[in-house]
Protein: Triosephosphate isomerase
Organism: Microbacterium telephonicum
Amino acid sequence: MARTPLIAGNWKMNLDHLQAVAFVQKLHWTLKDAGHEDGSVEVAVFPPFTDIRTVQTLIDADKIPFALGAQDLSTKDAGAYTGEISGAFLKKLDCGYVIIGHSERRDYHGETDEIVAAKVQAALKHGLVPVICVGETLEQREESGPTAVSVAQLTVALEGVPADAEFVVAYEPVWAIGTGQVASPEQAQEVCAALRAVIADTLGADAAERTRVLYGGSVKSGNIASFMREPDVDGALVGGASLVAEEFAAIIRYQKHVGV
Ligand code: PEP
Protein backbone atom coordinates (compact mmCIF):
# COMPACT_ATOMS: atom_id res chain seq x y z
CA MET A 1 0.00 0.00 0.00
CA ALA A 2 1.43 3.35 -0.99
CA ARG A 3 1.36 5.89 1.80
CA THR A 4 0.70 9.50 0.71
CA PRO A 5 3.63 11.60 1.94
CA LEU A 6 2.69 14.19 4.55
CA ILE A 7 4.59 17.46 4.90
CA ALA A 8 3.41 19.21 8.05
CA GLY A 9 4.33 22.71 9.18
CA ASN A 10 4.38 23.30 12.91
CA TRP A 11 4.30 27.08 13.30
CA LYS A 12 4.74 26.88 17.08
CA MET A 13 4.08 30.35 18.63
CA ASN A 14 4.73 32.26 15.41
CA LEU A 15 2.53 34.22 12.96
CA ASP A 16 -0.54 36.03 14.29
CA HIS A 17 -3.85 35.63 12.47
CA LEU A 18 -3.13 38.46 10.03
CA GLN A 19 0.33 37.13 9.22
CA ALA A 20 -1.25 33.70 8.84
CA VAL A 21 -3.47 34.93 6.01
CA ALA A 22 -0.53 36.38 4.09
CA PHE A 23 1.53 33.25 4.66
CA VAL A 24 -1.14 30.73 3.60
CA GLN A 25 -1.98 32.73 0.47
CA LYS A 26 1.68 32.96 -0.48
CA LEU A 27 2.26 29.25 0.08
CA HIS A 28 -0.83 28.36 -1.91
CA TRP A 29 0.10 30.54 -4.89
CA THR A 30 3.73 29.42 -4.84
CA LEU A 31 2.65 25.78 -5.03
CA LYS A 32 -0.11 26.46 -7.54
CA ASP A 33 2.22 28.38 -9.87
CA ALA A 34 4.64 25.46 -9.69
CA GLY A 35 1.81 23.06 -10.56
CA HIS A 36 2.23 21.32 -7.26
CA GLU A 37 -1.22 21.10 -5.78
CA ASP A 38 -1.83 17.73 -7.37
CA GLY A 39 -2.42 15.69 -4.23
CA SER A 40 0.78 13.66 -4.56
CA VAL A 41 1.92 15.16 -1.25
CA GLU A 42 -0.45 16.08 1.56
CA VAL A 43 0.27 19.49 3.05
CA ALA A 44 -0.82 20.35 6.59
CA VAL A 45 -0.38 23.54 8.58
CA PHE A 46 -0.49 23.76 12.37
CA PRO A 47 -1.04 27.39 13.37
CA PRO A 48 -1.44 28.72 16.90
CA PHE A 49 -4.99 28.31 18.29
CA THR A 50 -5.82 31.99 17.76
CA ASP A 51 -5.20 31.66 14.00
CA ILE A 52 -7.19 28.51 13.36
CA ARG A 53 -10.57 30.12 12.63
CA THR A 54 -8.97 32.58 10.21
CA VAL A 55 -6.97 29.92 8.39
CA GLN A 56 -10.01 27.64 8.23
CA THR A 57 -12.08 30.41 6.62
CA LEU A 58 -9.35 31.17 4.08
CA ILE A 59 -8.80 27.52 3.15
CA ASP A 60 -12.53 27.09 2.76
CA ALA A 61 -13.19 30.27 0.76
CA ASP A 62 -10.27 29.84 -1.65
CA LYS A 63 -10.51 26.04 -1.85
CA ILE A 64 -6.90 25.68 -0.74
CA PRO A 65 -5.98 21.99 -0.47
CA PHE A 66 -4.15 22.19 2.86
CA ALA A 67 -5.10 20.17 5.89
CA LEU A 68 -5.43 22.08 9.13
CA GLY A 69 -4.21 20.99 12.53
CA ALA A 70 -3.73 22.23 16.08
CA GLN A 71 -0.56 22.04 18.12
CA ASP A 72 -2.15 20.54 21.24
CA LEU A 73 -5.51 19.71 22.83
CA SER A 74 -6.96 19.06 26.27
CA THR A 75 -7.51 15.60 27.68
CA LYS A 76 -10.96 16.90 28.74
CA ASP A 77 -14.05 17.49 26.62
CA ALA A 78 -15.37 20.64 28.33
CA GLY A 79 -15.68 22.29 31.73
CA ALA A 80 -13.74 24.30 34.28
CA TYR A 81 -10.28 23.93 32.75
CA THR A 82 -9.05 27.47 32.29
CA GLY A 83 -6.87 27.95 29.23
CA GLU A 84 -7.53 24.50 27.79
CA ILE A 85 -8.88 23.73 24.30
CA SER A 86 -11.18 20.79 23.68
CA GLY A 87 -10.81 18.44 20.75
CA ALA A 88 -14.52 19.03 20.11
CA PHE A 89 -13.81 22.71 19.45
CA LEU A 90 -10.97 21.85 17.08
CA LYS A 91 -13.17 19.45 15.16
CA LYS A 92 -15.81 22.17 14.75
CA LEU A 93 -13.12 24.33 13.12
CA ASP A 94 -12.41 21.57 10.59
CA CYS A 95 -9.10 20.61 12.12
CA GLY A 96 -8.14 17.21 10.82
CA TYR A 97 -4.96 16.76 12.83
CA VAL A 98 -3.55 17.56 16.23
CA ILE A 99 0.08 17.38 17.32
CA ILE A 100 0.47 15.49 20.58
CA GLY A 101 3.54 15.10 22.77
CA HIS A 102 5.84 17.53 21.00
CA SER A 103 9.12 17.62 22.92
CA GLU A 104 8.55 21.30 23.74
CA ARG A 105 5.33 20.35 25.51
CA ARG A 106 6.96 17.40 27.23
CA ASP A 107 9.85 19.60 28.31
CA TYR A 108 8.25 22.99 29.13
CA HIS A 109 4.81 21.78 30.24
CA GLY A 110 5.67 18.54 31.98
CA GLU A 111 3.69 16.32 29.64
CA THR A 112 4.32 12.72 30.62
CA ASP A 113 3.83 9.64 28.46
CA GLU A 114 0.55 9.06 30.32
CA ILE A 115 -0.73 12.56 29.50
CA VAL A 116 0.28 12.02 25.89
CA ALA A 117 -1.67 8.74 25.86
CA ALA A 118 -4.74 10.50 27.31
CA LYS A 119 -4.48 13.20 24.66
CA VAL A 120 -4.28 10.56 21.93
CA GLN A 121 -7.53 9.10 23.28
CA ALA A 122 -9.12 12.57 23.37
CA ALA A 123 -8.10 13.25 19.77
CA LEU A 124 -9.50 9.95 18.51
CA LYS A 125 -12.71 10.46 20.48
CA HIS A 126 -13.31 13.74 18.66
CA GLY A 127 -12.40 12.43 15.21
CA LEU A 128 -9.00 14.12 15.01
CA VAL A 129 -5.90 12.37 13.69
CA PRO A 130 -3.20 12.55 16.36
CA VAL A 131 0.34 13.29 15.22
CA ILE A 132 2.20 11.54 18.02
CA CYS A 133 5.68 12.98 18.57
CA VAL A 134 8.45 10.91 20.09
CA GLY A 135 12.19 11.30 20.29
CA GLU A 136 15.25 11.14 22.48
CA THR A 137 17.64 13.72 23.89
CA LEU A 138 21.33 13.39 23.11
CA GLU A 139 21.98 12.09 26.63
CA GLN A 140 19.29 9.44 26.24
CA ARG A 141 20.71 8.40 22.86
CA GLU A 142 24.15 7.98 24.41
CA GLU A 143 22.76 6.08 27.41
CA SER A 144 20.20 3.76 25.85
CA GLY A 145 20.84 3.83 22.11
CA PRO A 146 18.92 5.39 19.24
CA THR A 147 15.55 3.63 19.45
CA ALA A 148 14.76 2.81 23.11
CA VAL A 149 13.20 6.13 24.16
CA SER A 150 11.05 6.56 21.06
CA VAL A 151 9.90 2.94 21.19
CA ALA A 152 8.94 3.28 24.87
CA GLN A 153 7.13 6.60 24.30
CA LEU A 154 5.14 5.24 21.36
CA THR A 155 4.27 2.03 23.19
CA VAL A 156 2.59 4.02 25.97
CA ALA A 157 0.92 6.43 23.53
CA LEU A 158 -0.70 3.53 21.65
CA GLU A 159 -2.22 1.90 24.74
CA GLY A 160 -5.95 1.49 24.12
CA VAL A 161 -5.75 2.68 20.50
CA PRO A 162 -7.93 0.51 18.26
CA ALA A 163 -6.26 -1.34 15.37
CA ASP A 164 -8.23 0.63 12.76
CA ALA A 165 -7.45 4.08 14.19
CA GLU A 166 -5.81 6.67 11.96
CA PHE A 167 -2.81 8.36 13.48
CA VAL A 168 0.59 9.67 12.43
CA VAL A 169 3.89 9.20 14.24
CA ALA A 170 6.64 11.82 14.13
CA TYR A 171 10.16 10.86 15.12
CA GLU A 172 11.74 14.06 16.34
CA PRO A 173 15.11 13.63 18.02
CA VAL A 174 15.22 16.44 20.59
CA TRP A 175 18.84 17.19 19.71
CA ALA A 176 17.83 17.99 16.12
CA ILE A 177 14.85 20.29 16.81
CA GLY A 178 15.58 23.92 16.06
CA THR A 179 19.30 23.27 16.41
CA GLY A 180 20.36 22.96 12.80
CA GLN A 181 21.92 19.64 13.85
CA VAL A 182 20.04 17.31 11.57
CA ALA A 183 19.87 13.52 11.95
CA SER A 184 21.33 11.57 9.05
CA PRO A 185 18.83 9.82 6.78
CA GLU A 186 20.17 6.49 8.10
CA GLN A 187 19.57 7.57 11.70
CA ALA A 188 16.03 8.68 10.84
CA GLN A 189 15.34 5.44 8.99
CA GLU A 190 16.58 3.29 11.87
CA VAL A 191 14.21 4.86 14.38
CA CYS A 192 11.27 5.20 11.97
CA ALA A 193 11.58 1.47 11.15
CA ALA A 194 11.65 0.64 14.86
CA LEU A 195 8.50 2.74 15.36
CA ARG A 196 6.74 0.97 12.52
CA ALA A 197 7.65 -2.31 14.22
CA VAL A 198 6.00 -1.06 17.43
CA ILE A 199 2.82 -0.31 15.46
CA ALA A 200 2.96 -3.80 13.93
CA ASP A 201 3.45 -5.46 17.33
CA THR A 202 0.71 -3.41 18.99
CA LEU A 203 -1.92 -2.96 16.30
CA GLY A 204 -1.00 -5.43 13.57
CA ALA A 205 0.61 -5.48 10.15
CA ASP A 206 -2.15 -3.53 8.38
CA ALA A 207 -1.87 -0.62 10.77
CA ALA A 208 1.91 -0.60 10.39
CA GLU A 209 1.62 -0.64 6.62
CA ARG A 210 -0.83 2.24 6.33
CA THR A 211 0.41 4.53 9.14
CA ARG A 212 2.66 7.41 8.18
CA VAL A 213 5.85 7.88 10.14
CA LEU A 214 7.47 11.29 9.76
CA TYR A 215 10.91 12.62 10.54
CA GLY A 216 11.27 16.04 12.18
CA GLY A 217 14.29 18.05 13.19
CA SER A 218 15.94 20.83 11.17
CA VAL A 219 14.34 19.70 7.90
CA LYS A 220 15.08 22.10 5.03
CA SER A 221 14.66 22.13 1.25
CA GLY A 222 18.28 21.01 0.95
CA ASN A 223 17.92 17.83 3.03
CA ILE A 224 14.27 16.74 2.66
CA ALA A 225 14.86 14.53 -0.39
CA SER A 226 17.51 12.49 1.40
CA PHE A 227 14.99 11.63 4.15
CA MET A 228 12.19 10.91 1.71
CA ARG A 229 14.32 8.28 -0.01
CA GLU A 230 14.25 6.17 3.15
CA PRO A 231 11.61 3.43 3.05
CA ASP A 232 10.14 4.10 6.50
CA VAL A 233 10.09 7.91 6.31
CA ASP A 234 6.72 9.05 4.96
CA GLY A 235 7.09 12.78 5.34
CA ALA A 236 8.30 15.49 7.65
CA LEU A 237 7.20 17.60 10.57
CA VAL A 238 8.85 20.94 9.91
CA GLY A 239 9.30 23.77 12.41
CA GLY A 240 11.43 26.79 11.51
CA ALA A 241 11.53 26.14 7.77
CA SER A 242 7.72 25.97 7.62
CA LEU A 243 7.50 29.70 8.40
CA VAL A 244 9.02 30.87 5.11
CA ALA A 245 6.59 30.25 2.27
CA GLU A 246 9.18 29.74 -0.50
CA GLU A 247 11.25 27.40 1.66
CA PHE A 248 8.26 25.38 2.84
CA ALA A 249 7.01 25.16 -0.75
CA ALA A 250 10.44 23.88 -1.83
CA ILE A 251 10.26 21.21 0.89
CA ILE A 252 6.80 20.17 -0.32
CA ARG A 253 8.17 20.05 -3.90
CA TYR A 254 11.03 17.73 -2.94
CA GLN A 255 10.12 15.31 -5.75
CA LYS A 256 10.39 18.01 -8.40
CA HIS A 257 13.62 19.67 -7.53
CA VAL A 258 15.65 16.58 -6.74
CA GLY A 259 13.84 14.03 -8.84
CA VAL A 260 13.19 11.42 -6.14
C1 PEP B 1 9.57 20.78 15.35
O1 PEP B 1 9.56 21.55 16.28
O2 PEP B 1 8.65 19.97 15.20
C2 PEP B 1 10.70 20.85 14.43
C3 PEP B 1 10.98 19.81 13.72
O3 PEP B 1 11.42 22.03 14.41
P1 PEP B 1 12.63 22.41 13.41
O4 PEP B 1 12.21 21.98 12.03
O5 PEP B 1 12.74 23.91 13.52
O6 PEP B 1 13.83 21.69 13.88
